[in-house]
Design the sequence.
């Protein structure tokens, strides 16, 4: 790949750059074994090995591998044993999958405005709140609410991030969920994990994710005497094997992000109309986040970067109060479930109708970092970024 290509539009983000046939020992093992279903063998499955490795790396008591992060969110919510129609408070700025996970679990999302860092504003939560999903957006470690029994951390973009006390994101709340979608820290194309320190919750999730029963490896299918209905969220050995390979490179990837972020913070232009949003020590620095003085300047920066082949994105697409899933309250059920269980009034918590948040997003621009590049190439990449920003 040419230097210009590496420094410009990123075709393979983050973990995808570390995929390597010579490093696919677990995938080769699964194929040579001829078993791609995790419960088909009495020996330890690759999926179980992955779960054990993740637990050790993150300091999590229990880990379950599933198809994707949306399923992980559903499992976390279902394990709280809710009543249909119960409320779940979620960030007003996040991917629509969070709202979708709530609704497909028979629950009702309540949109909560965000603070300047675009994290859920915990001061808006009413007394007696029972369930909250907090999203660590763009690798930024978000504060968790206190005195809420079920706090689910959405860590889809924050694998490897840590709180100030050293705990990994995903392990400080009731449960944490992770994504291996293509454009995440590590990738297997699709894939997810759910972690929890609650043994009963893990047992419930493990049963629900495989048709309501806890499976015995090598003796599939077996049924619990107290089996309840469930769904099939069981990961495959092939996907788990790729994820295992990816985990080998997590520390290397995080170090590469830290290095380029440090280079950028020393070299970016000093403009009175531009601010680089700060990053805490424990954040996963997947991107540089810029906040311009106006939307016009932000849009001009998008044009400047795009014209030079430098990858960038805005965050307006994450404004859930404007998403048709929320505004339309549509359902595939004849009776409108679960929206039929929701109050008639808007379920949104904001001091100003999200006006401040829309303004923040209108002026925000993100540029991805490139952990796979050498330090010298990262310096050249930052130089090209600086030139694009100075041209605005």
Sequence:
């Amino acid at each position: 790949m040419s230097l210009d290509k590496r420094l410009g539009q990123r075709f393979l983000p983050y973990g995808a750059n570390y995929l390597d046939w010579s490093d696919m020992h677990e995938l080769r093992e699964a194929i040579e074994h001829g078993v791609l279903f995790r419960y088909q063998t009495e020996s330890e499955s690759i999926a179980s090995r992955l779960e054990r490795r993740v637990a050790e790396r993150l300091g999590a008591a229990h880990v379950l591998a599933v198809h994707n992060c949306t399923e992980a969110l559903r499992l976390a919510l279902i394990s709280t044993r809710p009543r249909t129609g119960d409320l779940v408070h979620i960030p007003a700025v996040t991917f629509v999958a969070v709202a979708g996970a709530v609704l497909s679990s028979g629950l009702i999302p309540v949109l909560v405005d965000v603070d300047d860092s675009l994290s859920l504003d915990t001061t808006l939560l009413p007394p007696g709140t029972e369930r909250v999903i907090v999203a660590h957006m763009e690798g930024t470690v978000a504060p968790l609410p206190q005195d809420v029994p079920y706090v689910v951390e959405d860590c889809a973009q924050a694998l490897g991030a840590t709180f100030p006390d050293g705990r990994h994101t995903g392990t400080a709340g009731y449960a944490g969920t992770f994504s291996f979608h293509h454009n995440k820290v590590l990738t297997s194309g699709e894939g997810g994990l759910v972690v929890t320190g609650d043994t009963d919750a893990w047992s419930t999730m493990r049963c629900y994710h495989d048709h309501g029963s806890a499976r015995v490896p090598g003796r599939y299918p077996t049924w619990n005497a107290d089996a309840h209905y469930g769904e099939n969220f069981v990961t495959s050995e092939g996907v788990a094997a790729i994820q295992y390979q990816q985990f080998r490179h997590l520390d290397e990837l995080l170090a590469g992000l830290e290095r380029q972020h440090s280079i950028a913070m020393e070299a970016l232009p000093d403009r009175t109309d531009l601010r680089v949003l700060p990053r805490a020590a424990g954040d996963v620095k997947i991107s540089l986040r810029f906040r311009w003085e106006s939307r016009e300047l932000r849009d001009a920066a998008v044009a400047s970067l795009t014209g030079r082949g430098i990858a960038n994105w805005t965050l307006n697409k994450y404004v859930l109060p404007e998403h048709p899933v929320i505004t339309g309250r549509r359902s595939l059920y004849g009776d409108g479930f679960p929206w039929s269980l929701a109050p008639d009034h808007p379920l949104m918590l904001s001091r100003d109708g999200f006006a401040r948040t829309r303004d923040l997003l209108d002026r925000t621009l993100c540029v991805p970092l490139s952990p796979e590049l050498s330090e010298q190439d990262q310096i050249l990449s930052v130089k090209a970024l600086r030139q694009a920003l100075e041209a605005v």
